[in-house]
Design brief:
This protein is 77% helix and 0% strand. It has 11 helices and no strands. It is globular. By secondary structure, it is an all-alpha fold.
Length: 305
């Protein structure tokens, strides 16, 4: 549970880095590609010197050859790349707060579904009243935490629907990563595969935009240095999640992760606020309510109800 919460804090850090990079570049798709590409470079430089990662690749090849895992499930990273692409396109339309609410709603709803069908590889989990209540409390807590930052003037049904879809993609990706990790047995092998797939789909998207819209590739800004940490944080995050969801299930992981994300957002607002943002009681209240949902969800897992 602690690692799931830490992964949520990492998501907040990654979002801050990617958001600033996108702002400085003025090209959200290029920013997403730079983030994924940097993560791929980091994990690719490590892989040749890491016996466990190479062993994980051999394990995956053997599992595919034995038809223990369908090939299509290896494309989980495409969902991650699609999520980032949707995120960078939708946030400017409806704002971070409303995007977060819609995205997390999509994550929690999809988490219930993938847990029910056992897509994580850790066995099926019933959609009980307790689990649904925990999910609803968590979504409501996120709404409360973002209440002072939601602007209805920028509300768009299509953009909100796309944000919800982005969250649903994350729920499926986490489940597929859990299954990939079950066969690779090495979490950083799962990260390598994810970043290769994600970078590939984002490169295709950027190339398509260059042709269709005439967008130009913008020179990378010289700094600050931390805007380029999103990819590295992502490598560690995917390694974490691919292992944890096998044990917790996607819903319980999501509940703890959301709480960690809100705490990470709180810490960022305290240490390095953006655009004059200050810590609000809405955010603090949302964090407390989120962990009420976590407690309920955790009891569901402990007592198998």
């Amino acid at each position: 549970e602690a690692l799931a919460a830490i992964s949520g804090v990492m998501m907040a850090m990654q979002a801050r880095a990617n958001g600033e990079l996108s702002h400085l570049l003025g090209n959200s798709t290029e920013a997403a590609l730079v983030s994924f590409g940097s993560g791929l470079i980091v994990i690719s430089l490590i892989a040749p010197f890491n016996k466990s990662i190479k062993e994980g690749i051999k394990n995956l090849r053997a599992a595919v050859a034995a038809k223990q895992i369908p090939r299509w499930r290896l494309f989980a990273g495409v969902l991650g790349g699609s999520f980032v692409a949707l995120q960078t396109q939708v946030v400017p339309l409806i704002g971070v707060a409303l995007y977060s609410v819609a995205s997390i709603a999509g994550q929690t709803a999809m988490s219930l579904i993938v847990d029910r069908i056992g897509l994580t590889g850790g066995g099926k989990k019933l959609i009980s009243k307790r689990r649904v209540t925990a999910a609803l409390i968590t979504v409501f807590a996120v709404i409360v935490s973002a209440l002072d930052r939601i602007s209805l003037t920028s509300f768009s049904v299509l953009a909100v629907a796309l944000a919800t879809l982005a969250g649903a993609l994350v729920g499926v990706q986490r489940a597929l990563n859990g299954q990939i990790n079950e066969y690779s047995k090495v979490s950083f092998t799962t990260s390598l595969l994810n970043f290769f797939m994600g970078t590939s789909v984002l490169a295709i998207m950027l190339f398509a935009l260059l042709i269709l819209k005439g967008d130009a590739i913008v020179p990378l800004p010289s700094g600050p240095w931390w805007i380029y940490t999103g990819g590295t944080v992502g490598v560690i995050y995917i390694a974490f999640t691919s292992t944890i969801v096998q044990h917790l299930g996607v819903l319980t992981f999501t509940l703890f992760s959301v709480g960690g994300t809100l705490i990470g957002s709180l810490l960022i607002d305290v240490i390095a606020p953006t655009n004059g943002n200050i810590v609000s009681w809405y955010l603090v209240s949302g964090i407390l309510m989120t962990y009420l949902g976590v407690v309920i969800g955790g009891q569901s897992r402990l007592f198998k109800r």
